[in-house]
Task: structure prediction
Amino acid sequence: MAGQKGCETVASVTFPSYCVTAVSGRHVVVGGGGGAAKTGIRNQFDVYELYHNGTQTVGERVLSYDVGNHCITNMVAWPGAITAVSSRMMAPAISLAMGLEESCVLLKLKPLLQTVKKDEILSQVPKAKEKGHSGLRRRRTSERSAEEGSTEKEEIREEKRRKKSLNTTLRGNKYFSFDVEKVNSAETVVKKNSENESYQKCCGISSDYKFLVTGGTDGYLRFWSLPDMKKIKEIKAHEKEVDDINIKPDGKELVSVCKPTRECCVWNVKDGKKFTQVALQTNGVKYKCFRARYGSVESNPNKTRLFTISNPVVGTKNPAIVAKWCGRTYTQERTQNLPGSLSSLSLSDDGRFLATGTMSGTIYILIAFSLQQLRTIEDAHSMFITGLEWLPTENKESQMVRGFSDASVLSISCDNSLKIYHIPRQGMVPVWVVAILAAVILCCAFLLANFLGL
Result:
């Protein structure tokens, strides 16, 4: 179904974004950057606090953290221990693992209850720069995209933003931010020779948060214990780079994708042996698997299914394919053809919805069970979709952020924007329909009163 209401812009990001993850019902982490080139665009991640202002979902940036010379291309986050932020308030910490070149860095984000004053706002950014993060910039407003220019010009723009933030309305004079602590790091990819680049391309966290899995350009899957980042074991999974991984919710299996060799393999976590390899059954057309994700079965959360997106190897006349596989035998159950070249994939935590993005910036929403196309959001972004993330469906905080909707999916792109799309709750009548019905009823009532001489 095309022609639906488009995405809402949650916030403008100051760097090209490559990964997004929701760590609670109201906190989202976005990572990316300009890379090692001296372009003036920082390599960093931002934490946004989401809220609904009565009209749409809006994101406040409560933390920006500069990670140095390397861009964040993959990232996973999970909730940490509950921390006391005041004598009466408790909040969860955030654990964050991110790929920086050939290494994986593990951070802990500890919640802080901040009090905003005029002199503190003006002095906040310089102090934060010494620690590696820029703190609070603007609140309750969308932020401008990063612009090219010298560091001096950037600082002038930043000063104007800080001054403007003095006139911004806050929730009282307190807000949650985070203190960043480096927990550990490890080299997750082995460099084959001096001519080849080596970097981590993907990472995944087990559902119990006990181990982390990384994949990279050397073709290995490596398992790491948390939080000490000690290597548990490694699997030689592919001859070429590992482009994507996803761990099954029960932690017994994981799937890996290698685009150059068109492989999508399932591995036994316990013994490291290959369980099977899934391949699309098509009419002679060669397809390359791009992403793979496990999703729960809506009627039975203990059961899972595997979903993949694939693009034709040659030519653009053939459609891209979304496929559903049995989570036990990995037999192909259903497929859906979609126009365009698919670039990202995400499943809602309740197993009801699937979202996939294209290289042209379109987002498709499908019903996971039937792969029926539910929504098409054309031109959601001006560039290819680099990441999709569903907000938790059962979380009370998430429900407040989503408003009256069944589910909501966040999207990022290199166009420096963070957006959200809400799926209307079944049975809800759009506001414009209510307005038209109200006008018709008032006209009928007026005509009736006039006819009766009242």
DSSP finds four helices and 28 strands in the chain. The longest helix spans residues 431-451. The radius of gyration is 24 Å.
